[in-house]
Structures are given as structure tokens and as C-alpha cells.
Specification:
This protein has 104 residues and is mainly α. It has four helices and no strands. The longest helix has 29 residues. It starts with a helix and ends in a 7-residue tail after the last helix.
């Protein structure tokens, strides 16, 4: 006896929903288990007085977002194109843009 397409679809969908629920349960267990490790890392960051997270490794202005100025991506030429893909993913911090916004 051949299964109907709707039965195959619903069975596959139910199986994938169960897998997704399992992934969420596994992740929540990992998060609760990593609490002490996160607390130790937080204490280390405070002790070493680290400033910010390094999200990207390509260019200095995407590596340390709080330590850059808006013109750094154009250091080669004011009309140069962005040659690092991460420059398109992040914008300069708000405290740097505040001084450069023109009011009408």
C-alpha cells in the first residue's frame, strides 16, 4: 500500500518539529550548564579591564568598533570602495555619528 503525499508531508513535518524541539532543549541545557563558566569569564574581563568584543578580524575599523572614526574605511581614497565585506555589516558607533549628522 502506497502512502499518500499528505501523509509523508505531515510525518516529515512532525519529525522535523520534534528535532527542532530537541535542539532547543539541548541548547537550554547547555546555557544553564555554562552559567559558572560565564561568571568566571565575566570576572576575568572586569579584572583585565577589557573593552569590547572582537567580532571581525579583517580590518582594524571592524575589529575594534569603539576605537575607530567614520573616515577610516576611506583611508586609501575618499572615493574608494569598501574592500572588506564586514564593513557593510556594521556601522560606526552612535557616539561617533552624533557629531557628523547634519540638521536641516
Amino acid at each position: 500500500m502506497a502512502l499518500r503525499r499528505s501523509t509523508i508531508y505531515l510525518g516529515t513535518t512532525a519529525g522535523l518539529i520534534l528535532v527542532l524541539c530537541g535542539i532547543f532543549l539541548y541548547a537550554s541545557g547547555k546555557v544553564s550548564a555554562s552559567g559558572p563558566l560565564f561568571a568566571r569569564k565575566t570576572a576575568l574581563v572586569r579584572q583585565l579591564e577589557l573593552t569590547d568584543l572582537c567580532l571581525f578580524t579583517e580590518a582594524s575599523y571592524t575589529r575594534h568598533l569603539s576605537m575607530t572614526d567614520p573616515s577610516t574605511p576611506f583611508q586609501d581614497s575618499p572615493m574608494s570602495l569598501e574592500h572588506f565585506p564586514t564593513g557593510a555589516l556594521v556601522e560606526p558607533p552612535p557616539h561617533l555619528m552624533r557629531n557628523h549628522i547634519q540638521h536641516d
